[in-house]
Design brief:
Blueprint lengths: L2 E4 L6 E4 L5 E5 L2 H7 L4 E7 L3 E5 L3 E5 L8 E5 L6 E5 L6 E5 L14 E2 L22
Parallel strand pairs: 3-10
Antiparallel strand pairs: 1-2, 2-5, 3-4, 4-9, 6-7, 7-8, 8-9
Bound molecules: zinc ion (2 copies).
GO molecular function, one term: carbon-sulfur lyase activity
Keywords: Lyase, Metal-binding, Zinc
Protein name: Glutathione-dependent formaldehyde-activating, GFA
Length: 135
């Protein structure tokens, strides 16, 4: 069954053909700033599975990152909701911000990354692998 989602204002709507195989939480400072929150919840989606059914995202090329890679952050130019990020090391994958999915009930993170910059109040699930940096 296709997964659907949208930004806050609804200008951007998307569809994903298959259930994402990889899910995680990123605690890097840049994700905190972009989300205006404690972390990003992410799902790795093959590019060919992802389609915008409405609208075109705006790109922010984020080059001031811990990894040194330029992260392409795509968001709604009207309401600001982040939709997905793309990194040069994995050109065939979009890292979807899973809070934008219509139904988040199946989301279950498989790992935590950049825990070095995790906010102090956040308690990690002991059953979920946590990496200080990327992997
Ligand atoms: Zn929007
Ligand atoms: Zn991050």
């Amino acid at each position: 069954m296709a997964i659907t989602g949208q930004c806050l204002c609804g200008d951007l709507k998307y569809e994903i053909a298959n259930e994402p195989a990889m899910t995680g939480v990123c605690h890097c400072k840049n994700c905190q700033r972009q989300a205006g929150s404690a972390f990003s919840t992410l799902a790795g989606v093959p590019k060919e599975d992802f389609t915008f059914t409405a609208g075109e995202p705006t790109l922010y090329a984020d080059s001031d990152t811990n990894s040194g890679n330029t992260v392409e952050r795509y968001f709604c130019g009207r309401c600001g909701s982040p939709i997905y990020s793309a990194i040069p090391g994995q050109p065939d994958t979009y890292f979807l911000k899973t809070g934008t999915m219509d139904d988040t009930s199946s989301f279950q993170p498989m790992f935590n990354v950049w825990c070095d910059t995790k906010q102090n109040w956040v308690k990690l699930d002991e059953g979920v692998p946590a990496m200080a940096k990327q992997s």
